[in-house]
Structure formats: C-alpha cells, structure tokens
Amino acid sequence: MDLRIEQLSAGYGKVQVLWDVSLQVSAGEFVAVIGANGAGKTTLLRTVSGLLRPSGGRVRLDGQDVTRATPTRMVQLGLGHVPEGRELFAQMTVRENLQLGTAVRAEAKQRQAAGLEQVYALFPRLEERGSQLAGTLSGGEQQMLAVGRALMGRPEVLLVDEPSLGLSPKVTQTVFGALKAVNAEGVAVLLVEQNVAQSLTLADRAYVLENGAVVQEGTGAALLADPGVRSAYLAL
Ligand SMILES: Nc1ncnc2c1ncn2[C@@H]1O[C@H](COP(=O)(O)OP(=O)(O)O)[C@@H](O)[C@H]1O
Ligand SMILES: [Mg+2]
User: Fold this and answer.
1) What is the pTM of this model?
2) Along the 236 residues of the chain, how does pLDDT read in single tens digits?
3) What are phi and psi of 87, to 5 degrees?
C-alpha cells in the first residue's frame, strides 16, 4: 500500500505548524522523517492518521483520498500508528493491550492468535511478560508493546513516532531491528525521529522537516553523507 501526503497543512487553532508538506511512502518502503524537537513530526503523523484535521492538502492511500477519514477508518484501511508517548492501557496486561490492537478491524480480530504469535516472535520479551500489567513494564518493553499493538491491526503502512525516545542504545537497536524485520515482511514504514544517525542508516529514503516544512529529501545514505545534515543534526 502506497501513502501519499500532498501539500498538507495543519496546526492548532490559529497556529499553523505544517506548511505544504508533501511526501510519499511507496509499498514496502522504509522512509524516515528527521527533525528537531518541535519541527512538527508528531503533528504530521497525527494529521495523517486522522487524529488532527488538516487545514489544507490531501492524504491518499493507494490513490484513495482519505484526508478526512476518522482514525478508526484509517486503521480499518490498513494504517497503523505507534503514537508518541505510547498511550498504552497501563492497568491492562500486555496480552490485553495486544488484543485491543485488533479491536476495530474484523480481519485482524479473526486472526488474533496468529497476530499474537507474530508479535511474540518479534519480541519474545512480550510473551514472557504476557500477564504483566503494561504500566509496570520498563520503557523499552512499553515501546515494544506499543509497536506490537499497532502490528496486531495488520497494517500495510506503519507510522512510528520517535520510538527511541528515552531508550538505551541497546533497546533502541532491538526496536529498530524489529521495524526493519517488519518492513522486510512487506509493511511500509514511516518513521519520525530525532535520532538522525540511526534513522538514516535504516531508511531507504528520508525527508528533513524544519519548522513544519520539508527542506530536503534523499536516500538515507545521501543525507547521512550530506554536510548540511551532518552539521545541523549530527554535530560533526
Ligand atoms: N496540542 C497542541 N497545541 C498547541 N500547539 C501544539 C500542540 N502540540 C504541538 N504543538 C506545537 O506544534 C509544534 C510542533 O510540535 P510537534 O508536532 O509535537 O513536534 P515534534 O514532534 O517534531 O517535536 C510545536 O511548536 C509545538 O509547541
Ligand atoms: Mg514529537
């Protein structure tokens, strides 16, 4: 499934945050959007997944205009979203959180057992902790659970909001490795991150977001080698 974002504008009240953002994630692609704190990464993902209404522009899935679709509808169409801050149900178990990931999508609910098996294969830690309350997990385990819950909806396109935030380098590797594995199975990934070096290493292509606008795009490797990107984001 192909995601196209066309000249998207959005904000909060009178404050415009996104300015004519255009980007594309082709079926099976791994795309990163890198940007500093406050650049508009979370606003972008929330607008794409229907949580925020855009003030202009379009979002398309396989050509279909889904700009004003509800978040529930977007999940039903095959869009997964791992939100900033994870938004887990702290008083529910790991397994219950995962099961909830299938709630609004009939084909995911029917294949819930297979979905659990897949998520547990990806994150064996979650299987060990299946009966534990989500709120008592470590930060890394919570991030794995947030990714796992989104995968339970059987997305074809997965939006992931700063999964590395607050995690150790080792746990970050685990989570990024899982995203790469999911992508290798055919799920398109749109990752937004401040962790520029690792995101550009993972991504086929990437966009640089500054003050709510795309200012640069290229392959992950090209941006990683770009002097402007290096001095602005890698302090090299
Ligand atoms: N709920 C909100 N109400 C008002 N302004 C917001 C809200 N959320 C984010 N913003 C503002 O929008 C801008 C972009 O924020 P955000 O999308 O969270 O950036 P990022 O995820 O790249 O750190 C910031 O200036 C932020 O203060
Ligand atoms: Mg953010």
Assistant:
1) 0.96
2) 999 999 999 999 999 999 999 999 999 999 999 999 999 999 999 999 999 999 999 999 999 999 999 999 999 999 999 999 899 999 999 999 999 999 999 999 999 999 999 999 999 999 999 999 999 999 999 999 999 999 999 999 999 999 999 999 999 999 999 999 999 999 999 999 999 999 999 999 999 999 999 999 999 999 999 999 999 998 76
3) 50, 50
- Encoded tokens for 127: 């299987």
d(CA 219, CA 83): 25
Residues in the 5 Å CB sphere of ion ligand 2: 41-42, 84
- Indicate whether residue 83 lines ligand 1 (CB < 6 A): no
| Ligand 1 contact via 41 beta carbon (within 6 Å) | yes
Residue 205 lies in a domain: yes
Ligand 1 centroid–CA 38 distance in Å is 6
Domain CATH for 94: 3.40.50.300
Q: 223 C-alpha to center of ligand 1: Å?
A: 25
159 is in which domain, residue-wise?
Answer: 3-38+64-234
How many angstroms does the Cα of residue 106 sit away from the middle of ligand 2? 30
Gap between the Cα atoms of 81 and 71, Å rounded: 9
Half-sphere exposure for 34 (CA within 13 Å, toward CB): 26
Q: Residues 97, 134: contact at Cβ < 8 Å?
A: yes
**Protein residue with least CA distance to atom 8, ligand 1:** 43
In a domain? residue 18: yes
